[in-house]
Fold this protein.
Amino acid sequence: MKEVPVLIVGGGPVGLTASILLSREGIRSLLAERHPGTTHHPKARAINARSMEMYRQCGVETAIREAGLSPEQAGLVVWTRTLAGEEIERRVPWRSGPQSMAVSPVRNCLCAQDVLEPVLRAFAERQGSCELCFSTEVAALEQDGAGVTATLTDRVSGSEMRVRAHYVIAADGAQSHIRRQLGVRMLGLEKVYESVNILINADLRRRTTHRPAALYFVEHPQMKATFLTINAVDRWGFLVNSLSAYGYKASDFTPERSMELVRIAAGVPELEVKILGIAPWTASAIVAEQYCHGRILLAGDAAHEMPPTGGFGLNTGVQDVHNLAWKLAAVLRGAAGPSLLATYHHERQPVGRIITEQSLNNSISMGRLGGQSPGTAVARPEYLNEQGMIFGATYTSIAVVPDGTAPSTPANAVTDYIPSARPGGRAPHAWLEQDGTRVSTIDLIGNGFVLLTGVKGKAWNEAAQRLASEMRLSLKALTIGDGGIEDLDRQWAMTYGIDDTGAVLVRPDGYVGWRGRSMMTDPPATLGEALTRILGKA
């Protein structure tokens, strides 16, 4: 029987990202994916700035950007009657504009899933700590108090292999067999609308180059459709929504009929079109009642299915495993108690519910739900301007030590983000200077625990060095303002809410776990108590 610390089921972006994050923590894993390779369909395309921050810290950001399109190549969102016809409205979403750089050094990226997955796979394979097994199906799972025993079947040869893992990450998608096997109750609305994804080859540059957009919504009397930019030249997605409202069934979408609808939506009857694939699907807005089931942990679409309106599905999934990987590593190394893993559910499930609800609200505003009348519907103002949802998630669990301060209350929690280092929130971006070069706080964190201290916080630094050894932790202490890293305009001190003697402890996932706004009587005891609590050893 093969033994491995973590078995990952599913080789999409979530599973591949989990393998990368575990490898960075020095944890071996085995990934089983039932398909023979990475996907051939574009599926998800939008990677938001928070996810790109994570990929930047992993070292794969550049490769993803080289494979995808820049915001300048697809920065708009356009509503039309047809591509060649009347333009109804165009917008520059917040997340595509330069204003996004005020809250992050990283911009979003448009990279279709069929291009993204090979990049992640190649990067994961280079890490050396993960074994990737494609054409491999998990036929059975049995868990006990000490681990999980899985039966893996090679779909080519038919041979079976038994694997014993301490933990399983179920990232096997919206049709998750593991979720069904566990009998997980799902909260929300199932089957809210039907769609058909059509992958096409057609040169649309004459209708798009002058207004480069990620999405071209078509509000036509015969259909509600979208041209989705993939390479911005001749490879496009064509999405038809609200089928029943316009008298369609999924079975109507033969290659010939699909080609006809593409030409109608483009407004170019003679357009040369090649149909590369047709995939009907049904959108749901459901979230697992519980993410943690013993030693099996749900992630990505296995944990939450949401309408694609807003592009949050992939992003929520990869951020799930960003939250989970360091916790698994700490427990497996003995640095944390098993109760730390329960915080994965407590932190991520409320976020999943909020994002799923807002994605559904986007769909409703766009007239996509079954039962809504056909007709023109331009999305609500919040659509693609969800700065608060991207950066403003706040965690409440034993892995966060409150500091007694009240949370910020933005006017609109969906669109507004107020940078703050209050425990439970993302450690905010602030520009610093290191050896004469401008550097973001985002580039100082994301690899183990990091303690950021004021210029007079030497006692915190000494405590961190001692505790790192005693607690078997990756814990780095950095002083801001000691000549190495400078806060020239005091932006960091103001944003992080501490004085020259204070300190902020940032978790490996980039979230603030503890904050001491000024010096305390016994720094080693205070910091040690915070770490003990965060790690579930209190």
